[in-house]
Design brief:
Layout (H helix, E strand, L loop, with lengths): L9 E3 L2 E3 L3 E3 L14 H12 L4 E8 L20 H13 L3 E7 L6 H5 L4 E3 L16 H8 L9 E3 L2 H20 L4 E6 L4 H6 L14 H4 L1 H14 L4 E10 L7 H14 L3 E7 L21 H8 L6 E3 L5 H10 L4 E3 L2 H5 L3 H6 L14 H6 L29 E5 L3 H12 L3 E5 L7 H6 L6 H14 L3 E3 L6 H6 L4 E4 L4 E2 L12 E3 H9 L3 H5 L3 H12 L6 H7 L9 E5 L3 H12 L3 E5 L11 H13 L3 E3 L2 E6 L3 E6 L2 E6 L2 E4 L3 E2 L3 H8 L4 E3 L8 H15 L1
Parallel strand pairs: 3-4, 3-12, 4-5, 5-8, 6-7, 8-9, 9-10, 10-11, 11-12, 13-14, 13-16, 14-15, 16-27, 18-25, 19-20, 19-25, 20-21
Antiparallel strand pairs: 1-2, 17-26, 22-23, 23-24
Helix pairs in contact: 1-2, 5-8, 8-9, 9-10, 15-17, 15-26, 23-24
The chain binds flavin mononucleotide (FMN).
Length: 701
C-alpha cells in the first residue's frame, strides 16, 4: 500500500480516527439563520462516505450573530442549534468518520457586527494601517463584498476585561452544545486574524494589561478558553487548537512564537495543535501566503517546528498531496494531515488511496475558485468537481434508458460530459480531431501545470469507463449516422480572432495557441511562419525530443524558446497574464497591453492577485486602457486616452478575441441531430464553465 502511515488509525485525546486524513474547516455558507441545512449534511456526509478520518465543521460562531462573519455560517449560541449539529454527528458517524466543530469569534472580520451596528472586538485600536490591497479586485467583486456588512463601514473597539470574560463563557457554552449534539470535539480557532489570533499576534495586540505585552499575556485569552472548555466538557471530549505557525506580516507570529503558544495550549488541556498560517492583505496576494497557500507543502516546516515543542499530536495543512503527506508523517514532522481544497475537489480521496487507486484522485488545480465565493458569502464551487455547492441537485443516477451519446471535442467539457454520461450507463463515443485529449486545458498546462492533472484525471476515468475514444477523428454527419448517435454533445471550444488592425497578419504575430503549438510541435503552420533560424530551432527541438511531453516542453523552454527577446502580449485576461508570466520566466522582456482597466478578470481574485504579483516580479509590464492601433515588424502601437505610444517587439502574442462558436453545432442540427453544446463553444467559462456545463449535459441525457 503506497500510503500506509496516512491510512493508519490515529488518536486525538480520547478520540480515535480510522486514518490520519483531516478535512479542515471550510466555510460552506449553507446554513439558514444559523441552522444546519440538508446542504451542509450532504456536503459533510459525502466526505465521511469518502473515508475521511476526521471532519472539522466550518468555522461556527460561538456567540452568533455577535462576532459572526456570516448569517449563513453555523451558529452555536443557543440550544435550538443542537438538533442540526446532532444530524451532522449522525451523518459523520454513520460512515465511520469522527467530527469536530471549529469554534470562533471573528473579531475584526465579524461582518455581521458591522451590518448590525455593533463594534467589532479587537485587542487594541487602531488596527495597524491596513492590510487590504484592493488593486486587483474588480468593481463587481467589491460591490458583492460590500454586501457582507450591508455596505456599512466596520468600527472596532478594544475588548474590555468584561468582554473577554463573556467571550470565554460563550466558547464554553458553545462547546457544551457541541458535546450534547454527540459530536466528538471542537477546534478552537486561534488563527487567521480572528479574535483569539489577534490577541496572540504581536502585530495586532498592543495592550499593556494582563492580555498583552508578554507571550503569556497574549496567550491568556486562548488559555482561558481552552481551560474553560476542558473544565466544562471533561476529558472525554477532543480539543484541537488551530494556530498560525506564521503570520506573513512584519512583527507577526513566528514559528518559534507559535511553538510557545502551542506549549501553553497543551498545558491548558488541548489534545492537538493544527498548524496553519495567515497573511494580511486578505483581498490581495497576502491571502495566498496565508491562509490559502500557493505552494505545495508551504506550511509543513511550521508544523515541524511546533511538533518539536509539544507532546500532543500536530496536524499539518497547506496543499499537501498524499505522497508528501505519507513522507512527512513518516519523518515525524506531523501526526495528521489536513487536506482542504483537495477534499473539496475529490471527497473520495481516502477511499481511492485505500483501494490503491491514487491515479483516480481528482486533483485540486489550485485555481482558488472555491474560496473566492466566500468573499461574498457564497457557497464554494469547484472548477474540477461540478457537484460542489450543488448538492441540491442530488447524486448522479443511472439513466432510465440507455442511449448512444457522441461527444465532439476532447477538452475538459467534452471529457466531463463523456464521464458523466458513461457513469449513468449510456454508451459513449468521444471524437477528437487532434491526436491528443485535453483541448485548451492540455495546452494551458504549459503555463499552468496543474491543468494537466485535470486532463490526466478525466482521460483516465473515461478510458476506465469504456468510453470509445477516437482521437485524430473530426466529426462528420456520416460518422454520427454510422455511430447511431441519439444525442450529440458539441464541446469544440471557443473561436479566437486576431484583432482587425494593420499588421495583425505579420509572420511574427502569434495567437496563444500558435505559440503553444510552436513549442509542442503540434502546429507546423505556426512554425512555417518563423524566420529560418528560428524554424531551425523548432526542428532541432523536435528532433531532440524537447516536445515529447508538456512537462518536458515546460522545462526545456527555460533554455530553448523559438521566439525573440521582446514580446508584446495583446490582452491581459487569464490567458495573457499566464503567458506573460511564462515568457518572462524564460528571459523574455514582456509587455502586456490590455484594453480594459483590470487584468486577469476571469481568474478567481486570490489567484489573480498572485499571478499578477508573480508576473510583475518577473519584470512583466502591464499597460491597461491600451487601444491597439497597429503592428509593424519592429513594434506595436497603441493609444492610451488620446496619446499614441509604441513598444518595441520581436514577437507579438495575441491573447484576446475569444468568442463562442456554435458553428459545428448548428451544422449538425441542420443535419437532423439532437445537439447540445457545452464549454466555451456555448459560453466562454474556461475550465470551471467547461466542467460544469459538461457535467450538466451528462446528467441531463
Ligand atoms: C472554501 C474555503 C473555506 C475555508 N474556510 C475556513 C474556515 O472556516 N476556517 C478555517 O480555519 N480555515 C478555512 N479555510 C482554510 C482551510 O481550512 C485550509 O487551512 C486551507 O484551505 C489550506 O489547506 P489546503 O491547501 O489543503 O486547501 C478555508 C479554505 C477554503 C478553500
Amino acid at each position: 500500500m503506497p500510503h500506509p502511515t496516512l491510512l493508519t488509525q490515529g488518536r486525538i485525546g480520547s478520540v480515535e480516527t480510522r486514518n490520519r486524513i483531516v478535512l479542515p474547516a471550510m466555510d460552506q455558507n449553507s446554513c439558514e439563520d444559523g441552522e444546519i441545512t440538508d446542504l451542509n449534511i450532504a456536503h459533510y456526509e459525502a466526505r465521511a462516505r469518502g473515508g475521511v478520518g476526521l471532519l472539522i465543521l466550518e468555522t461556527s460562531a460561538v456567540a452568533w450573530p455577535i462576532g459572526a462573519t456570516s448569517l449563513h455560517q453555523p451558529a452555536l449560541s443557543e440550544d435550538r442549534f443542537i438538533p442540526g449539529l446532532k444530524r451532522l454527528a449522525e451523518a459523520a458517524h454513520r460512515h465511520g468518520s469522527k467530527m469536530f466543530v471549529q469554534m470562533c469569534h471573528h473579531g475584526k472580520t465579524a461582518g455581521v457586527d458591522a451590518m448590525q451596528d455593533r463594534e467589532q472586538l479587537v485587542p487594541s485600536v487602531p488596527l495597524p494601517a491596513d492590510e487590504n490591497d484592493l488593486s486587483s479586485v474588480t468593481m463587481d467583486e467589491l460591490m458583492k463584498m460590500a454586501g457582507l456588512t450591508g455596505g456599512k463601514r466596520a468600527q472596532q473597539r478594544a475588548a474590555t476585561i468584561d468582554d473577554l470574560v463573556w467571550v470565554v463563557d460563550q466558547f464554553a457554552d458553545a462547546a457544551e452544545r457541541v458535546q450534547k449534539a454527540g459530536l466528538d470535539g471542537i477546534e478552537v480557532h486561534a488563527a487567521h486574524g480572528y479574535l483569539i489570533s489577534t490577541f496572540l499576534s504581536p502585530h495586532y495586540n498592543l495592550r499593556d494589561d494582563e492580555y498583552g505585552g508578554s507571550v503569556e499575556n497574549r496567550a491568556r485569552l486562548l488559555v482561558e478558553v481552552v481551560s474553560a472548555i476542558r473544565k466544562r466538557c471533561g476529558s472525554d471530549f477532543g480539543i484541537i487548537v488551530r494556530l498560525d505557525g506564521r503570520e506573513y506580516v512584519e512583527g507577526g507570529i513566528t514559528p518559534e512564537l507559535s511553538a510557545e503558544y502551542a506549549v501553553l495550549a497543551e498545558s491548558a488541556g488541548a489534545d492537538a495543535i493544527h498548524v496553519s498560517a495567515s497573511g494580511p492583505n486578505s483581498m490581495g496576494v497576502g491571502f495566498t501566503n496565508g491562509p490559502l497557500p500557493w505552494q505545495p507543502d508551504q506550511y509543513l516546516g511550521l508544523a515541524a517546528v511546533v511538533k518539536q515543542s509539544v507532546s500532543i499530536p500536530v496536524i499539518a495543512v497547506g496543499r499537501i498531496f498524499p505522497d508528501a503527506a505519507e513522507k512527512h508523517l513518516k519523518n515525524g514532522d506531523c501526526d495528521f494531515v489536513s487536506m482542504g481544497r483537495q477534499l473539496l475537489a475529490d471527497p473520495d480521496l481516502p477511499a481511492k488511496l485505500l483501494s490503491e487507486k491514487p491515479d483516480r484522485v481528482r486533483t485540486c488545480i489550485n485555481c482558488f475558485v472555491c474560496v473566492a465565493q466566500n468573499f461574498w458569502d457564497g457557497a464554494p464551487i469547484c472548477a474540477v468537481n461540478a457537484e460542489l455547492g450543488h448538492y441540491d441537485e442530488g447524486p448522479l443516477r443511472l439513466a432510465t434508458e440507455r442511449r448512444k451519446v457522441v461527444v465532439v471535442g476532447g477538452g475538459p467539457g467534452g471529457m466531463e460530459t463523456a464521464r458523466v454520461a458513461a457513469v449513468r450507463g449510456h454508451s459513449v463515443t468521444l471524437l477528437e480531431k487532434s491526436p491528443h485529449l485535453g483541448g485548451t486545458a492540455r495546452f494551458s498546462s504549459l503555463t499552468t501545470p496543474m491543468n494537466a492533472e485535470l486532463v490526466r484525471y478525466l482521460s483516465t476515468e473515461i478510458s476506465l469507463l469504456d468510453v470509445d475514444i477516437r482521437t485524430s477523428t473530426p466529426v462528420t454527419a456520416g460518422l454520427l449516422r454510422e455511430l447511431n448517435a441519439d444525442v450529440v454533445v458539441v464541446a469544440t471550444g471557443a473561436r479566437r480572432e486576431r484583432p482587425d488592425i494593420p499588421g495583425a497578419g505579420l509572420p511574427h504575430v502569434f495567437s496563444g495557441d500558435d505559440l503553444r503549438g510552436l513549442l509542442t510541435g503540434d502546429d507546423p503552420a505556426a512554425a512555417s511562419r518563423l524566420p529560418v533560424h528560428r524554424r531551425l530551432m523548432v526542428s532541432i527541438g523536435r528532433s531532440l525530443g524537447f516536445m515529447s511531453s508538456m512537462d518536458r516542453v515546460r522545462s526545456m523552454s527555460k533554455r530553448w524558446m523559438p521566439i525573440g527577446k521582446r514580446v508584446v502580449v495583446v490582452g491581459g485576461g487569464l490567458v495573457g497574464v499566464e503567458l506573460a508570466e511564462y515568457l518572462a520566466e524564460r528571459g523574455r522582456s514582456v509587455t502586456v497591453l490590455e484594453e480594459g482597466e483590470k487584468l486577469g478578470v476571469e481568474m478567481a481574485h486570490p489567484r489573480r492577485a498572485r499571478s499578477l504579483f508573480e508576473a510583475r516580479n518577473h519584470g512583466v509590464s502591464f499597460i491597461t486602457g491600451a487601444q491597439l492601433t497597429g503592428i509593424t515588424e519592429s513594434g506595436v502601437s497603441y493609444l492610451v486616452g488620446d496619446e499614441t505610444h509604441t513598444v518595441r517587439s520581436d514577437a507579438v502574442v495575441i491573447a484576446s478575441g475569444v468568442h463562442t462558436d456554435e458553428s459545428i453545432a448548428e451544422q449538425l442540427r441542420t443535419d437532423g441531430f439532437d445537439v447540445r453544446v457545452v464549454g466555451d463553444a456555448a459560453s466562454v467559462g474556461y475550465i470551471e464553465g467547461a466542467v460544469r456545463t459538461g457535467y450538466l449535459a451528462g446528467r441531463s441525457i
